[in-house]
Design goal:
With about 200 residues, this protein is α/β, with parallel strands linked by helices. The protein has one domain: Rossmann fold. About 35% of the residues lie in helices and about 20% in strands. It is built from 6 helices and 7 strands, in the order E-H-E-E-E-H-E-E-H-E-H-H-H. Strands 2-3-4-1-5-7-6 form a 7-stranded mixed β-sheet, sandwiched between helices. The longest helix has 24 residues. The protein starts with a strand and ends in a 10-residue tail after the last helix.
Amino acid sequence: MFFVIAGLGNPGRRYSGTRHNAGFAVVERLAAAEGWNFGRRRFSSLVAEGRYGRHHLLLLQPQTFMNLSGQAVAAAVRFYRLPLEQLAVVHDDVDLEVGRLQLRRGGGTGGHRGLDSIVQSLGGAGFVRLRVGAGRPEPGVDTADHVLAPLAPPQQQLWQDALERAVPALKCWLDEGLEMAMNRYNPWPVKEEKS
């Protein structure tokens, strides 16, 4: 089966490590775990691809900037004639605490312009989302400034832990289905594994 996972972010060094580039960071980790490289450009994106178990997986980092992510994602979905159920989008979400992950299918965009662009370009919202908690901005801080700023040191470990957990969450979705992945990775706070 063919799957596309699009990690949202903005190209360029100035955005690296920011909350808004959570999607880029997650698909980079997934590619590294599988020994793949983002070495080619297709669909206005950097792409990495390969076999994962019984699936063929295409990872996208749209290079259109966040607000036009739909152009890149829709180009790939249409090229492969992909049902929306075989697309996952990884993105930051200010409505979730830093460190939290949430998998779901469909739903609103919460004002996330990258998601707005994808829903509009695809004409539907029935794809899987992996939301990475970016936390709410402090009072008086603009949301755009918040998501484009590096995280403060106290939040860095929570953030890195969430990015690391996102890879097995996506693999669980591919291997065992969305419901199992949601049951395992959506609970918050994260429960310690018993040894």
